[in-house]
Design brief:
CATH topology: Rossmann fold
Helix content: 25-40%
Number of helices: 18
Strand order of the largest sheet: 3-4-8-12-9-13-14-15-16-17-18
CATH architecture: 3-Layer(aba) Sandwich
Shape: globular
Distance between the termini: 38 Å
Number of domains: 1
Radius of gyration: 22 Å
CATH superfamily: Alpha/Beta hydrolase fold, catalytic domain
Number of strands: 18
Strand content: 15-25%
Structural class: alpha/beta
Largest sheet: 11 strands, mixed
């Protein structure tokens, strides 16, 4: 489904806490599970054999040379040569494999080094999407672990530029680097971002769903640390190691790497911040509409056991051999689901394993045991704007509160904070309520926690822009909307962005690019963006024609949720 027609999922809504209050947020899978930034793609892509690094098993250690100008757009790595394609003022390299296909006995194992090509590879097409269910149909290919690169022409030969590596969203069960914003047009096309920022832009694919996050006791014996799971996280670390070794061949500076991601991609960014295995692999981070969350080992084992039963392997003498014998379609069909508004969702994502994730990401940060780098944290003003039906009524609002909060006193307090009269309708009030719980208020918690635990600066933003188009107006600044601005793809479906909208897009590209280059977003003609201070809750409002610094985002409402949900900072 295309970006403008999808209906975002909402994550789990109900969890009863120890005092009997039902939480409305488990904040499990947070932004990622609410999103359907997952788009239908065609599978005509030819997967190009390429090389790169793997996980800890790679034997490639030679750093790639700075590219030469003898053949325009030719990148010579330590494991193969790749011919790029001119894309306006950039060179584009698509579908470059950074790890071997995780198939057969490599399914549910750490990524390993791929085979090196012996001839020049035409890097002109995306890799297939990783296995996932799209509109109820099993889609994708396990041979999907690839990166895509856009390098400004001016830095390709000789000069090395900072790197911006993007991790896509989709609840860690869907999504890809080749998602379409409209027919034939890729949302995460890095050309415009590379041109405006002057940086090398990289997008990456990683294993999803049970193939990327399965935890099962039978897999523990195969894991180097005796704890299974987090294969998707290992993929991302392998991609960063590939960047460290090979990005010089594409004009990139391996000493200036920023990771940024949205929704599930942002959840994975926080996992990278918390993972000792990712130490030294990146120098800045951006968490867009996501959370610092992970399943406990116990929760992940429950999901893994359910998958094994659904696949008919729970009683097999060799459970993992049985699961490896199942086709991709059979694995996808066996995914356990958790009920949520908007439809069931599979419970897969990062989990605490005492190795890659020694404890929950927020706990790692609070203990100052994380990778301390300059970090941007933010959310959109109406995250759930596309998830709440236009027909949502007062009766629906009351029913949602009753289902989530058994306490009449709590419901009364919430109804006072989110009065349909004040917000103009029951629908708008519920969008504000759900957006606060799942995205806006957690962004404050993450910013506060980071600011208290590290010396490198933390920056907060609040994206409130709504494009000047009729079809956007009912949904507000919904989940994922900022991506259109960040990747410079506002001119879709015949829409002509205003001058102010285009200027906001350019400003965001420069802010993000500046953090990649030097850890500070502002400077020059850009509006001032000062480091985060907990006492102020200062942030940059991202809105066309009105970019500005302010203090406090929905402060009273977020204070209420902090108390009710027992959040600590």
């Amino acid at each position: 489904m295309k970006f403008f027609t999808r209906v975002a999922r909402m994550q789990r809504l109900v969890k009863v806490d120890k005092n009997g209050l039902s939480s409305l947020v488990r904040i499990k899978r947070m932004a990622c599970l609410t999103s359907r930034i997952i788009l239908v793609v065609t599978f005509t892509a030819l997967f190009i054999a390429a090389c790169g690094g793997g996980g800890g098993s790679t034997n490639v250690t030679v750093l790639s040379p700075v590219p030469t100008a003898t053949t325009p757009g030719l990148a010579r790595t330590s494991c193969g040569e790749y011919q790029g394609v001119e894309a306006a003022n950039t060179w584009r390299f698509l579908g470059i494999r950074y790890a071997a296909p995780p198939v057969g006995v490599l399914r549910w194992r750490a990524p390993t080094a791929p085979s090196c090509p012996t001839t020049v590879v035409a890097a002109n097409d995306y890799a297939p999407i990783c296995p996932q269910t799209v509109n109820g149909i099993a889609s994708g290919n396990e041979d999907c672990l690839a990166v895509n690169i856009w390098t400004p022409k001016g830095v390709f030969s000789g000069t090395r530029a900072p790197i911006m590596l993007f991790i896509h969203g989709g609840g860690n069960v869907q999504g890809s680097a080749r998602e379409e914003v409209e027919g034939g047009r890729v949302l995460y096309d890095g050309r415009a971002l590379a041109e405006i920022s002057g940086n090398v832009v990289v997008t990456v694919q990683y294993r999803l769903g049970a193939l990327g996050w399965l935890v099962h006791p039978a897999l523990d014996s195969e894991a180097a640390d005796a704890r299974a799971g987090n294969y998707g996280l290992e993929d991302l670390i392998a991609a960063l190691r590939w960047v460290e070794r090979e990005i010089g061949a594409f004009g990139g500076n391996r000493d200036r790497v920023m990771v940024f991601g949205e929704s599930a991609g942002a959840v994975n960014i926080c996992a990278l911040l918390a993972s000792p295995a990712a130490a030294g692999l990146f120098d800045a981070a951006v968490i867009q509409s996501g959370g610092c969350i992970a399943d406990t080992r116990e929760e992940a084992l429950i999901s893994g056991g359910t998958l094994a039963r659904n696949a008919g392997c729970a009683s097999a003498s060799d459970v993992i051999a049985c699961l490896r014998s199942r086709s991709v379609a059979e694995i996808l069909a066996a995914l356990p689901a958790v009920a949520s508004v908007g439809g069931p969702i599979p419970p897969f994502g990062p989990s605490v394993d005492n190795s890659l994730l020694p404890s929950s990401p927020l706990a790692q940060i609070r203990a100052a045991a994380h990778n301390r780098v300059p970090t941007i944290v933010g959310a959109n003003g109406d995250e759930l704007g596309r998830s709440v039906p236009l027909t949502f009524t007062q009766r629906d609002f009351d029913a949602a509160l009753l289902a989530a909060f058994p306490s009449a006193t709590v419901r009364t307090q919430i109804a006072a904070l989110y009065s349909p009269t004040e917000f103009g309708s029951a629908r708008r009030a519920y969008i504000a309520l759900a957006s606060d719980i799942k995205f806006v208020c957690p962004a404050r918690t993450i910013a506060r926690t980071l600011a208290a635990a590290q010396t490198p600066s933390v920056f907060r933003y609040h994206f409130t822009e709504v494009p000047d188009a009729t079809e956007f107006q009912p949904f507000g600044a919904f989940h994922g909307l900022e991506l259109l601005y960040l990747f410079g793809v506002l001119d879709v479906r015949g829409y002509r962005p205003t001058v102010a909208e285009s200027a906001l897009s350019t400003d965001m590209q420069r802010y993000w690019g500046n953090v990649a280059a030097g850890g500070q977003p502002g400077g020059g003609a850009l509006s001032l963006w000062t480091p985060y201070q907990t006492a102020r809750d200062n942030h940059l409002v991202l809105e066309a024609g009105a970019v500005r610094e302010q203090d406090g985002v929905n402060t009273a409402r977020c204070n209420f949720w902090d108390v009710l949900l027992h959040r600590t900072e």
